[in-house]
Design goal:
59% of the residues lie in helices and 8% in strands. It is an alpha+beta fold.
Length: 205
C-alpha cells in the first residue's frame, strides 16, 4: 500500500494518525504539489490533485475520512450505531468547521497584495469561534471527541486544532484547550507532529 501525501498537510496528518494508531504498514510517497511532474502524477490517480490518496492492490482511495474507514475496517469507529453516527459527525465537524475555515485564513495570507478576501476571512473567523464554542460544550467531561475511546474523530481533530490555534487561539474554550493538550500527548499524533516539524517554516506568519 502506498500513501501519497505531504507530512505538513492537515488532512494527510489525519490519515497518518490513524495509520500509526493501528500500526498499519505502508509505503510513503511525499508529493510536492509545486513540482508539475509530481502534481501531474497525483492527478492521474485523483483528478483533483489533492492528497491524501492511497493505492492498495490496484485500488485508489481518496479523501481522508474515506481512507480511514477503508483502512481501519471499523476499528476507529464505535460499534454502537448511535455512537458511530456521532463519531462520523464529529469527524466531519473538525474537517468542515475547524480545518476548512483555518485553511481559508491561511491561504488568504498567501494571496498577492490586492487580492485578499477580507470578508471571507472574517466569516471564517466567526465560523471558527462558533466551532470552538460548540466543541467546548460537548467536550466537557469527555477525554476524547466521542467519550472515552480514541476514534477517527480524534484523528481529524488533532491537526485541525493545531493549525487553527495558530491562526485563532482557543481563548476561553478551556475544554477545547485541555482536549488538545491530551491529543498532543498521544504517541501517534506526537509522531506526526515530529515528522511535520521540518516544514513548519512554510506556515504563513
Amino acid at each position: 500500500m502506498i500513501l501519497h501525501f505531504h507530512p505538513f498537510a492537515s488532512f494527510c496528518q489525519k490519515v497518518l494518525i490513524g495509520l500509526y494508531e493501528l500500526e498499519i504498514p505502508f509505503e510513503r510517497n511525499v508529493v510536492h504539489l509545486e513540482k508539475p511532474e509530481e502534481r501531474a502524477a497525483l492527478a492521474r490517480l485523483w483528478p483533483f490533485a489533492r492528497f491524501p490518496v492511497i493505492e492498495d492492490r490496484g485500488k485508489v482511495v481518496a479523501e481522508s475520512s474515506i481512507i480511514l474507514e477503508y483502512l481501519a475496517g471499523g476499528r476507529l469507529i464505535p460499534k454502537d450505531p448511535e455512537r458511530a453516527l456521532e463519531c462520523r459527525l464529529r469527524d466531519r465537524f473538525f474537517d468542515l468547521y475547524v480545518a476548512d475555515p483555518m485553511s481559508k485564513i491561511v491561504t488568504d495570507n498567501l494571496r498577492p497584495e490586492g487580492h485578499h478576501d477580507g470578508f471571507g476571512v472574517e466569516e471564517a473567523r466567526k465560523l471558527l469561534a462558533t466551532a470552538y464554542r460548540v466543541a467546548d460544550g460537548w467536550l466537557a467531561g469527555h477525554e476524547w471527541a466521542v467519550g472515552d475511546t480514541f476514534t477517527m474523530a480524534d484523528c481529524a481533530a488533532a491537526p485541525a486544532l493545531f493549525y487553527a490555534n495558530l491562526v485563532q487561539p482557543f481563548g476561553d474554550s478551556a475544554n477545547v484547550a485541555a482536549y488538545f493538550a491530551r491529543l498532543e500527548k498521544r504517541p501517534s499524533y506526537a509522531r506526526v507532529r515530529a515528522e511535520a516539524e521540518p516544514y513548519m517554516k512554510l506556515f504563513p506568519g
